[in-house]
């Protein structure tokens, strides 16, 4: 993102004719390297090489697990810890004599890779789908599901709740209640943008359950609004995705929304 802002600004400053249309970065860097050659590179470069080669997007909220080979997460963690140590140095923190920050780089690297951004690096949790033998076709609501994430802009925490409304049809696959929370957690455990997170969750559920209607509401506190910036303690962000029957049928939409508990003040 920053790169593109910088690029645009640079272009405006140039009096010469505009540069030719962008060369896709993937094409520009596509040089064949064998896995043996890749082995000499840091893990992050190896993984990035495979992503570029496959022309796959690797934004903050994308899952890249298919490109991470066995053992590479441990390497990534060590690499991130080294870089975070440099950040602490750049912040002029004496991590040698300050026992509080002595292991901070390692702790934060572990937290990123194994916990808060884990949803980027591991495949989706396995979900068993059951045919809808009872032919359920009534509105189902799952929630509130507690979700934790971090905003892509500031890497500040996001805490929130998600409600999911499903209107199944006889061909829908049903998934166990706890699986909704597992899938939500997998999608939220990445640097996210709330609107994109909700759409990603809707896409996953649509593909698995194939309902007639799908509705998702997410309400979340963004700590970049509390801790920095406007320092507003009250603001929360609510957004929703409505698909299929929830889009077409105002009564169904109203029924779903009326069943959601109001935010506790
Ligand atoms: Zn933010």
The CATH architecture of the largest domain can be named as: 2-Layer Sandwich
Radius of gyration: 22 Å
What is the CATH topology of the largest domain? GTP Cyclohydrolase I, domain 2
The number of E-state strands comes to: 7
**Assembly state of the chains shown:** single chain
Distance between the termini: 36 Å
User: How many H/I helical runs?
Assistant: 12
Described by strand count, sense and barrel closure, the largest sheet is: 5 strands, mixed
The spatial strand order of the largest sheet comes to 5-2-3-6-7
Strand pairing plus helix content: what structural class? alpha+beta
Low-confidence sequence ranges: 1-20
- The average pLDDT value, as a whole number, equals 87
The secondary-structure element order is: HHHHHHHEEEEHEHEHEHH
How does the overall form come out from the CA principal axes?
A: globular
CATH class of the largest domain: Alpha Beta
Estimate what percentage of residues fall within beta strands. Answer: 15-25%
Could you tell me which ligands this complex binds, including any ions or cofactors? zinc ion
* Tally of distinct domains: 2
């Amino acid at each position: 993102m920053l790169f593109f802002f910088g690029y645009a600004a640079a272009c405006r400053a140039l009096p010469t004719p505009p540069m030719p249309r962008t060369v896709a970065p993937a094409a520009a860097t596509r040089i064949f390297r064998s896995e043996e050659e890749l082995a000499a590179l840091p893990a992050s470069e190896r993984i990035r090489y495979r992503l570029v080669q496959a022309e796959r997007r690797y934004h903050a909220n994308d899952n890249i697990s298919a490109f991470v080979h066995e053992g590479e997460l441990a390497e990534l963690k060590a690499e991130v810890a080294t870089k975070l140590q440099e950040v602490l140095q750049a912040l002029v923190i004496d991590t040698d004599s300050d026992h509080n920050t002595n292991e901070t780089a390692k702790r934060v690297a572990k937290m990123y890779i194994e916990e808060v951004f884990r949803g980027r690096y591991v495949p989706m949790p396995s979900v068993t789908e059951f045919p809808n033998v009872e032919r359920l076709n009534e509105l189902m609501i799952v929630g509130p599901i507690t979700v934790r994430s971090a905003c892509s802009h500031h890497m500040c925490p996001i805490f929130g709740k998600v409600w999911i409304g499903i209107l199944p049809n006889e061909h829908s696959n049903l998934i166990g209640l706890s699986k909704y929370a597992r899938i939500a957690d997998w999608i939220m455990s990445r640097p996210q943008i709330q609107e994109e997170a909700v759409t990603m969750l809707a896409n996953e559920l649509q593909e698995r359950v194939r309902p007639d209607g799908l509705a998702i509401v997410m309400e979340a506190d963004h700590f970049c609004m509390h801790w920095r910036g406007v320092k507003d303690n009250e603001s929360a962000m609510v957004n929703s995705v409505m698909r299929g029957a929830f889009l077409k049928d105002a009564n169904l939409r109203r029924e779903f929304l009326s069943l959601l508990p109001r935010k506790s003040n």
